[in-house]
Amino acid sequence: MSLKQLTDIKYSVLDLATVVEGQTPADTFKHSLDLAQQAEKLGYTRYWFAEHHNMMGVASSAPAVLIGYIAGGTKSIRVGSGGIMLPNHAPLIVAEQFGTLASLYPDRIDLGLGRAPGTDQVTAMAIRGENMNAAHNFPKDVERLQTLFAADNYDGRVRANPGEGLDIPIWILGSSTDSARLAAAKGLPYAFASHFAPAYFLEAIKLYRENFRPSAVLKQPYVMACVNVVAADTDQRAEYLATSVKQFFMGVITGKRRLLQPPVESMDDIWTIYERDAVEQMLGYSFIGSVQSIKSQMRDFVNKTQVDEVMATSHVFDHSEKMHSYKLFAEVMKQV
Prior knowledge:
alpha/beta, TIM Barrel, 12 helices, 42% helix, 15% strand, globular, Bact_Lucif_Oxidored, Luciferase-like_sf, CmoO-like, oxidoreductase activity, acting on paired donors, with incorporation or reduction of molecular oxygen, Luciferase-like monooxygenase
């Protein structure tokens, strides 16, 4: 197996539409468009939104709407879901929504699918009602979606209009080994949530590659890794800015979620040693530092994992610093 160079790897953006302290979702969405337009100019391949619910600091509860907004404000970058939590929705509705998006923005829409609820169990009940065990139907629901998108479904009793006959790439998302097996069996590209679930990443991509069955849409396995990135002009500045993402994940672990907090000089007075260890475990695949430092870290990561694409998510408090972080990360990926 020949080693990949960073210039061989596609690089993309995952946007959680994070709401920062002192601002509103309306501000967040304007910043997302600003970032997507910059990402397009910097050579990023795709711009995805993740579906989350009942999180005051995360405004990506309606990815399909945001995808339309971003696609309408850009020209060439692919826009999609990372992902739609399929058990929350009827496959027909997803097919119609993404069929509509693909009709408006041809050859630019991606449909990433996950099986988790994207929220807590109480909110999942509010979304799914009597369908709380829908996650068990995930493989069949993926097949239903593929059927609805197929051109030969013209004589089906249930048809997606728009959607039928459109070429909308389906990705399987995962944070464990279950989805790896499904993506392999169906011959679909696989995106792993290593930005918050690093523990199963290496095992999952190994399983995916070993069990991959070529399909009409994909001849070879294709692995995308989502990672945390905080880039700045110096390592010290990046570490300072990264205290915002550490506070964000501390909220995930403790259940005390807040809007994204400003960076702090030290986390010592904010977290306990146990919270620190838990956060650092979740942030196992995080690239924090200057261009030079991240380039070294990223080369090691690519050599170890042989991923085909990296998707960067960046929880940086100040919008201009966040834009700069993504600009620097593009430099990392484009330099020989």
